[in-house]
Amino acid sequence: MQPHGQGHEGETSFVRELVHQFRTSDSRAWDGKTDAEVLAPLVRRDRRRAGAEDGSVDPEVFWRIEIFFQAVARTLEARTGIPCAPMLRMHHEGFGRVVVLAGRLVAVTKTLRDVHRFGFDSVEALIEAGERLVTAGTLLIHRFPEVAHHT
Amino acid sequence: MQPHGQGHEGETSFVRELVHQFRTSDSRAWDGKTDAEVLAPLVRRDRRRAGAEDGSVDPEVFWRIEIFFQAVARTLEARTGIPCAPMLRMHHEGFGRVVVLAGRLVAVTKTLRDVHRFGFDSVEALIEAGERLVTAGTLLIHRFPEVAHHT
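YS: structure for the whole thing
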């Protein structure tokens, strides 16, 4: 895997931003780990089951989801020049909603079910999902620039 | 105080909705309490200090803030016909952000500081603050109807 080679020419790629978000979070020691190792917890086959038997969700999972949408927000911001902020609303029952706000625009919205299973079948699927969210958000910001610039 | 007499003729009033939100929440027994008693925890002079000495915030405070913005959302929805959803993002350090989303529009946004002090000097101030948020949100929805209708 070469995440640094992904993304569009001259653009911030989602996966590069995602790796960066993980590496700059101060919760872990990432030194000496490859990008693939950093991303592994988001890839289903590479990780241990995160859901506890009582149905509660490992806080670790919330943190990963935050990092993922933080990367979506940062990439969207880099591509549009509009400050973007993720907002997550998680319920311990395992569902939630995540949005990325650009000014007064909800650039990205996603309902999450089975939060404890948040992850992707492969790194490629992860990249595709992230890029898809960023692309949809970019289109919406370009469609409603006045709302995205509104504070 | 006569909260039921507040609000605009023929419109859902914020304070009536707020009292309703408190009364229909299943966390308390509200039977036999007046509307003023129901609202008292949001009025600073009527309540005990909610902040713990270690700086953490009483979960009770989060719940009250949720009820307040739930009432803002329900009133906005009643006045515009657009489904509105509050989203709160609280940090235990005592600050947070609350938004009310109408479709892809951030109809209401508010940064909260000193969350443990969330409250109003009087019931009148509470009503004014709520109505002001609802009015601003209504104006924005009318200004950007396409965004508010966007799913």
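YS: worth flagging: The CA atoms of residues 11 and 79 of chain A lie 7 Å apart.
IM: good catch. Also Chain A touches chain B at residues 85, 87-89, 97, 99, 101, 103-107, 109, 140, 144, 146-147 (CB under 8 Å).
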